């Protein structure tokens, strides 16, 4: 894997160290997450974040273990880091960090206090909500190490305040049980019990959300580090509290071995691919410990069907996980209703509210069969896939239907945003894209052709599918090219002066990246034209991927910043989306255009934000600072897929 490490000039400079985040997933939807500095900058940061019934319904448990070293002289040095609502940062343990490493995906800190060097490693027990934190004396000593446990038990999207109930902490043999929900275990436990008031999260402040919370100082662990190699370790776990996990050092070693196996199974061609393969692993989870699913992004997303299907090939087929992928596709097929794939919202509700998620599902099944040769799965799912086509031909929810006049797919209903550009401000869609969106119709044509191929493999008649594919393709080629030199983004859209259902329609030729799918998909309706692709790249391409809208558009928003309304308003109005680099590279390769230099910026990004991973979004204007989730499934999956495809 690529070497990710930082020395004292990054570790000791708070802005740099606190803007680089690490993630250690547990494989069931929970995680440990924080920054290189050790400073919690988000409400979502913690050492034990526990999944609920769905991956998005997480709860924050153990927030931090703040180290303090008592030297032979009697001096006490605190190595933690917190920012307070006053603006003060205290303690400032990051100033004593001499190195941070991400080793096999696991974080390692190294503090130097004169001749004394202490190292911390952290891992989660794969398949269980359990974290292990190991502190080792590397040089110097003897010293005494204390670890102050700051705790809470709350929804990951919120805060807990001292004016509410006091957390219930019950002492047990080697530590404590907090709120009956999770257990802390380690040496020399001393109960404390007081509020730390006004802990500040600078990233939540930047996002226009409430930035402060109060933490419960439950107690501290302590142990002697007499000679190099001595350790003081703490474990915390949720779920079966009487089922004690292995020793902390064993958990770290097991996690390291597992991560190496994950990388080896993917058979990476180079260190970047190895890094992306391990990054991809974070998103594949067993919800409830059994069902395979995909977390769309950390730290706040759960499972979203569109994201899952766009990510499918990269996460499963490029990493040697086809068997798990098969299981996932079968489970998702069972959710089809009226020809639409279920979309599990972060609220936990099952919703049917995308026009493209189902079409991406057709694509994922087609790719699975093509790449693996698993025709048995194709045969098994064929009736379900045919039901999708039949429902779209007959018409289904939200005005989703095939226009019999041209065979193209139209969609839209008042107050809805059914494409991937689905942001809302105060409940009103920013980009409803009512009509015939370009990528939706590219996916429709791709789906018809893919299903025809699966039908043919099953030895069945494909004449009707081929006819419909031919009609839609001819209409696409006739209608989507725009006088501007690129493709229309939406055909037959309501004119701005008319509400949905008004008399006037127009064709929207805004320069957006959705058109890339018209050239990139396996059964794309158009052959790439170099001149057109260069026009698209000139307006949209950045080092981290294509913008969602060209900068010369009146609606362009160059900075994805501010409060929720401001951020959502610019989400698809110029913000960069790294996942779109996949379709861009595919289109260029099909057009025989070189893409050798396209990956330079995004590969450098692997060490700049979510360490070893790819962010959800970035600013549309330079320097294209990363925004959104630091760890995003489709961003990682698409980069891994197109890099592997080019080997």
Structure report:
The protein is of the alpha+beta class. It has 17 helices and 36 strands. The strands form 11 sheets. It has a 9-stranded antiparallel β-sheet with strand order 1-9-10-11-12-19-16-15-14. The two termini are 17 Å apart. The relative contact order is 0.10. Residues 20-227 form the Glycogen debranching enzyme bacterial and archaeal type N-terminal domain. GO terms for molecular function: 4-alpha-glucanotransferase activity; amylo-alpha-1,6-glucosidase activity. This is Glycogen debranching enzyme, putative. InterPro entries: 6-hairpin_glycosidase_sf, 6hp_glycosidase-like_sf, AGL/Gdb1, GDE_C, Glycogen_debranch_N.
Q: Which labels suit this protein?
A:
647 residues; alpha+beta; Beta-galactosidase, Chain A, domain 5; Glycosyltransferase; 2 domains; eight-stranded antiparallel beta sheet; Glycogen_debranch_N; amylo-alpha-1,6-glucosidase activity
Topology:
Elements: E1 4-6, H1 8-11, H2 14-18, E2 21-25, E3 31-35, E4 46-50, E5 59-70, E6 76-78, E7 81-83, E8 89-92, E9 97-103, E10 106-113, E11 116-124, E12 130-139, E13 143-155, E14 169-172, E15 175-178, E16 182-185, E17 190-200, H3 202-206, E18 212-225, E19 231-238, H4 248-266, H5 271-281, E20 284-287, E21 291-294, E22 297-298, H6 305-317, H7 322-333, E23 343-344, E24 350-351, H8 357-372, H9 375-394, E25 401-402, E26 409-410, E27 424-425, E28 428-429, E29 436-437, H10 438-457, H11 463-479, E30 490-494, E31 505-508, H12 517-520, H13 530-540, E32 541-542, E33 545-546, H14 564-570, H15 581-590, H16 600-604, E34 617-618, E35 626-627, E36 631-632, H17 633-645
Helix pairs in contact: 4-5, 5-17, 6-7, 6-8, 6-17, 7-8, 8-9, 8-10, 9-10, 10-11, 15-17
């Amino acid at each position: 894997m690529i070497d990710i490490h930082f020395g004292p000039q990054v570790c000791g400079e708070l802005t740099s160290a606190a803007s680089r985040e690490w993630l250690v997933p547990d494989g069931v939807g929970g995680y440990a997450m924080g920054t290189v500095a050790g400073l919690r900058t988000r409400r979502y940061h913690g050492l034990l974040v526990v999944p609920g019934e769905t991956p998005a319904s997480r709860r924050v448990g153990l927030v931090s273990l703040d180290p303090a070293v008592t030297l032979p002289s009697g001096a006490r040095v605190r190595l933690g880091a917190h920012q307070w609502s006053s603006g003060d940062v205290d303690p400032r343990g990051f100033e004593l960090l001499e190195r941070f490493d991400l080793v096999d995906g696991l974080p390692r800190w190294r503090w130097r206090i004169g001749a004394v060097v202490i190292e911390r490693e952290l891992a989660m027990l794969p398949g269980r909500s359990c974290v292990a934190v190991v502190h080792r004396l590397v040089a110097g000593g003897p010293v005494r190490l204390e670890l102050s446990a700051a705790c809470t038990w709350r929804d990951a999207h919120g805060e807990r305040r001292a004016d509410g109930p006091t957390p219930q902490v019950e002492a047990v043999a080697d530590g404590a049980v907090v709120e009956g929900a999770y257990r802390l275990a380690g040496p020399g436990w001393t109960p404390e019990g007081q509020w730390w008031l006004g802990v500040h999260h600078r990233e939540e402040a930047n996002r226009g959300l409430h930035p402060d919370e109060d933490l419960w100082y439950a107690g501290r662990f302590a142990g002697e580090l007499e000679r190099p190699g001595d350790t003081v370790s703490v474990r915390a776990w949720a779920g079966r509290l009487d089922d004690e996990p292995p020793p902390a050092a064993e958990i770290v070693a097991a996690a390291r071995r597992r991560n190496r196996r994950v990388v080896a199974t993917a058979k990476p061609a180079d260190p970047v691919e190895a890094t992306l393969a391990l990054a991809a692993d974070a998103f594949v989870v067993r919800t409830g410990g059994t069902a395979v699913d995909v977390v769309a992004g950390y730290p706040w997303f759960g499972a979203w069907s569109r994201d899952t299907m766009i990510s499918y090939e990269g996460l499963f087929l490029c990493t040697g996980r086809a068997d798990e992928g098969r299981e996932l596709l079968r489970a998702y097929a069972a959710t089809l209703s009226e020809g639409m794939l279920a979309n599990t919202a972060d609220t936990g509700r099952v919703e049917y509210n995308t026009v493209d998620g189902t079409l991406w599902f057709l694509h994922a099944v087609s790719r699975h069969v093509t790449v693996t040769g698993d025709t048995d799965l194709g045969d098994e799912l064929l009736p379900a896939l045919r039901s999708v086509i039949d429902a779209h031909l007959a018409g289904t929810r939200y005005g989703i239907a095939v226009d019999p006049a041209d065979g193209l797919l139209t969609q839209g209903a008042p107050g809805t945003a059914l494409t991937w550009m689905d942001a809302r401000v105060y409940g009103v869609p920013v980009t409803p894209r009512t009509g015939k969106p370009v990528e939706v119709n590219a996916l429709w044509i791709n789906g018809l052709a893919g299903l025809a191929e699966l039908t043919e493999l099953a030895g069945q008649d494909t004449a009707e599918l081929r006819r419909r594919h031919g009609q839609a393709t001819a209409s696409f080629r006739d209608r989507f090219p725009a006088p501007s030199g690129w493709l229309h983004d939406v055909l037959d859209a309501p004119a701005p002066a008319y509400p949905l259902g008004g008399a006037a329609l127009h064709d929207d030729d805004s320069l957006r990246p959705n058109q890339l799918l018209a050239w990139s998909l396996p059964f794309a309706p158009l052959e790439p034209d170099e001149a057109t692709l260069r026009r698209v790249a000139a307006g949209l391409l950045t080092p981290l991927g294509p913008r969602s809208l060209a900068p010369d558009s009146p609606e362009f928003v160059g900075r994805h910043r501010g409060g929720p309304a401001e951020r959502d308003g610019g989400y698809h109005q110029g913000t960069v989306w790294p996942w779109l680099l996949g379709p861009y590279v595919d289109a260029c390769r099909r057009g025989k255009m070189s893409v050798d230099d396209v990956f330079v910026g995004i590969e450098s990004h692997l060490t700049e934000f979510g360490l070893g991973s790819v962010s959800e979004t970035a600013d549309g204007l330079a320097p294209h600072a990363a925004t959104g989730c630091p760890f995003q499934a489709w961003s990682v999956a698409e980069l891994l897929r197109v890099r592997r495809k080019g080997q």
